[in-house]
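Hi team,

As requested, here is the filled-out complex form for the adenosine-5'-triphosphate run. I kept the field names the same as last time so the parser does not choke. Let me know if anything looks off before we queue the next batch.

— J.
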Amino acid sequence: MGTPTTNTGPVITVSGLRMRYDSFEAVRGIDLEVGRGEVFAFLGPNGAGKTTTVEILEGYRRRTAGDVTVLGEDPAHAGPSWRARIGVVLQESRPERDLTVAECLRLYAGYYPSPRGITETMELVGLADQAEATATRLSGGQRRRLDVALSLIGDPELLFLDEPTTGFDPSARRAAWDMIAGLRSLGVTVFLTTHFMDEAEHLADRVMVIAEGRIVAAGPPGTLGGRQRAAAEISFTLPPGASVAALPGPVRDALVDSVSDHMLLRSARPLAVLGPLITWAEAAGHDLPDLEVRRPSLEDVYLALTEPGTDAPPLDAPPLEAA
Ligand code: ATP
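And here is what came back:
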């Protein structure tokens, strides 16, 4: 990797960032910090302000207000030596016509002061077997890998990845995730923009959610929006012949919904509900074959945070009175 100016301290610092397009304020005063070697996921619905923010960080767009430092410099005034320390993978790219994968990489390597090796880069993205393939004849997934390879050829300290797995089949996605995890072990800082919650959950050390130009939540994916403290949902179908009134008290108290025989319960202490439920079912000889216990997923939290007009996630809503 290219020699970093410092080995400690944040790679990206943003404070009070604002961006106005005519009368519309797309980014409304955001603060963020990304540490060296971190995989940071930036999430948000369409039009939330992600691309605007990322383009400002990449030095492609001037901001209206706020302080921004990326790799020790203000991207609005940084020069080519700063740009050489950054890799950018856009949503779409056009590979060079008639060049092979290896030739494309060789061409791009010539633009950087100390590029990564061609073979090493192809291996890193899983394209070594396609070295002599013409870039324009690669499959969509392979082309995306080439995009990532081209962004890595300059041996960047910081990589911006925009929707890296859109259009990938499940196994190509897994391979891309392994590759991104591999970048982490090389010490590359990754700023990831994605709409896939499982991707953010799998890869990111920290996620930040932006909605309507404001940060609505930030933290490790496992604890975002108080997810680890949120109530669990328990569901099962009432066995034939059983009635709600016959269920144990703690089960009835946790009931939030029942559609025909399908029971939905919510509890911050699921064992206090499951214990009596199972004891009751065993004593009565009932099977509960579709019993499910579920904590809110990152997607649940995300949807609650970004739903227009919603101020707080309804994750810990109290249960209804038992029927
Ligand atoms: P998506 O997930 O759809 O890519 P995003 O979070 O990246 O969305 P931005 O592209 O940053 O969102 O756009 C934020 C807001 O700013 C949107 O309302 C968009 O219409 C507006 N916007 C973006 N670029 C411009 C521009 N050049 N001129 C005017 N308005 C713009």
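Two things worth flagging: The chain has a mean pLDDT of 88. The longest strand covers residues 10-21.

Thanks,
J.
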